[in-house]
Hints:
Layout: H1 2-20, H2 26-38, H3 42-54, H4 60-72, H5 76-89, H6 94-106, H7 110-117, H8 122-127, E1 136-146, H9 151-155, E2 165-183, E3 188-207, E4 210-233, E5 236-257, E6 260-282, E7 286-295, E8 300-311, E9 319-332, E10 338-350, E11 355-366, E12 369-371, E13 376-378, E14 383-395, E15 400-413, E16 415-417, E17 428-442
Antiparallel strand pairs: 1-2, 1-17, 2-3, 2-16, 3-4, 4-5, 5-6, 6-7, 7-8, 8-9, 9-10, 10-11, 11-14, 12-13, 14-15, 15-17
Amino acid sequence: MRITITIFFLLVLISGTGLGQTPQTVSSVDAETYRLWLARDWDGLLYTGNEALKQGIDFYYLRYRMGIAWYEKKNYHRAVRHFRAAWQINPEDELLAEYFYYALRFSGRDYEAARVEDSFSRQMKRRLALPENRGWQRVYLAYAYNPGAPSLAVDRVDTETAVEGFQSVSKEYHLINAGIEHRVGSRTWLHHSYTHIQKSFYFFQNEAGQRFQNPDDKTYANQYYLGAARLIKDGLDVRLGFHFIHLLDYQNRTSFIRGRHQVVSVAVTDQNYVGFASLHRRGQFLTTKLTLYAGNLNNAVQHQQDVAMILYPFGNLNLYSTSVLSHQSEKPVEGSWRSQFILQQGLGLKLTDRFWVEADAAFGEIRNFFAADGAVVYNDTDATSKKYAATLHAVLSSHMHLRVDYVITDRESFFIPSQTGSQTLEAIDYQTRSFTVTLLWKR
């Protein structure tokens, strides 16, 4: 009997609680979120909105207000989600389009922002001070200098070795890089880049009993990069391209002249290529990238696969981390395939409205290596075992940006024997530092 009475009272209590709850409707949610929007109670608005979405209540002004709430909280990645849902219902609302456009820009989604900009009227573009020519995306010019290895590294080269082969130690280099990115069609962008490098290095060679040293050998590189990005749909794009490298070097040859062996310097040119295909997927907090490379640097064949993740914990560019895991396989002309993993880890932090910094490090033997969708190529004969970099970004104006990079690299110089299976000499470890200054115009 007691059990029956207890169950009866529980049923009455549950029934009374259910009767006391007022189910949400479109009208009640509309009225409540409008009140919270007027009061600028963003947390309350988002709580009410999320509860409504869980119950299947979804309408234009709900998404509009939730997008504004996340925008005001500076979580632009979440704001994009709701603005997009509202914009698909009513793309004619110019204020909504403006919110959507800037949420995309502040999320770093420039390609998607350009698609929204296509819907702007001429008067709206003029009001937002947007350029009439929407073709140009960015133009940049960069200069880099690296003083190279210290003299102690050169002094460690074994010039008395009986093993035939050669060894080089990188010295200073100067780099000039210029590039443009422009739009071709409604969903496609092209990135062109030209790079000129003038590099000097210490060179030692032992061939046919003749030893030769050049403390200031030089090589020149002219490089052209072409990359194409195609926006497949919102949050997804594919990128394809290639990097062509033309090298001019002065190599030593042993010739039999006037009855004896002599070493002469001969101009030699070489052409290297890098091709890539990349898929970029952008979510609310995480951007993922998968990139495949193929190249033929330094008389070898390279295959490389990159998996990258960029995390935005607060849904904006104030703080982000980048992780890239690369698997590289390489086969020289004579020899078997070798493979290795390389890890790159970075962190970005916004200091003020005009300044932010980035720091990153790379671990693994970086030699004949590709990065940044093929735009960066590490084709030095010396390997990089560790790399540490710090970058300062400064916003000079609404369109002009300045970037300064400071990079410390731990390098290794190897003696390359003329014949496989010959004695391997001890590698020479040294450290270099480089500075790069980039001036960028961005629309």
